[in-house]
């Protein structure tokens, strides 16, 4: 079974929405955002307005996605990417497909002149932490905060 990693197309909107709900609600247990908000996000990223999304397609099904947001590093005075999402359906986690999606994001970052790619993951997501360590990532000394 071969997989294709590609940029999101507008035809993917419905299938990607379901995949995003599997991520948001099913994986992280967060409230289900309104479908109009998800569609607006997909549309904005499709037009590279502040970021880009990639999907993994296997036999006509979407099995994963990744989201890169574009930002700037003040410390380096260079543009960077922030990998906000890296999600695959459960049977595909820990496989070569997961590594390929990660590497696709990493390559996009390099090929488009971004200084680096950064991301965060849940403190309790030890499987993802082990994966990122395996990919050669470096844990930083920064502490992440959030406020509403």
UniProtKB/TrEMBL annotation:
Q: Which PROSITE patterns match?
A: GNAT
Q: Per its UniProt record, what CDD domains does this chain match?
A: NAT_SF (cd04301)
* PANTHER family for the chain: DIAMINE N-ACETYLTRANSFERASE, GH14572P-RELATED
Enumerate the SUPFAM superfamilies for this protein: Acyl-CoA N-acyltransferases (Nat)
What Gene3D superfamilies does this protein's entry cite?
A: 3.40.630.30
Q: What keywords appear on the UniProt entry? A: Acyltransferase, Transferase
Output this protein's name.
GCN5 family acetyltransferase
């Amino acid at each position: 079974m071969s997989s294709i990693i590609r940029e999101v197309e507008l035809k993917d909107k419905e299938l990607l929405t379901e995949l995003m709900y599997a991520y948001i609600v099913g994986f992280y247990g967060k409230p289900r955002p309104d479908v109009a908000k998800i569609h607006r996000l997909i549309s904005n990223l499709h037009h590279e307005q502040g970021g880009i999304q990639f999907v993994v397609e296997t036999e006509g099904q979407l099995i994963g996605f990744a989201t890169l947001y574009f930002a700037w590093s003040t410390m380096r005075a260079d543009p960077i990417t922030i990998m906000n999402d890296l999600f695959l359906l459960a049977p595909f986690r820990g496989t070569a497909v997961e590594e390929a999606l990660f590497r696709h994001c990493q390559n996009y970052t390099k090929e488009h002149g971004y200084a680096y790619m950064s991301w965060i993951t849940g403190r309790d997501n030890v499987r993802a932490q082990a994966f990122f360590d395996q990919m050669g990532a470096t844990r930083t000394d920064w502490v992440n905060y959030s406020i509403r």
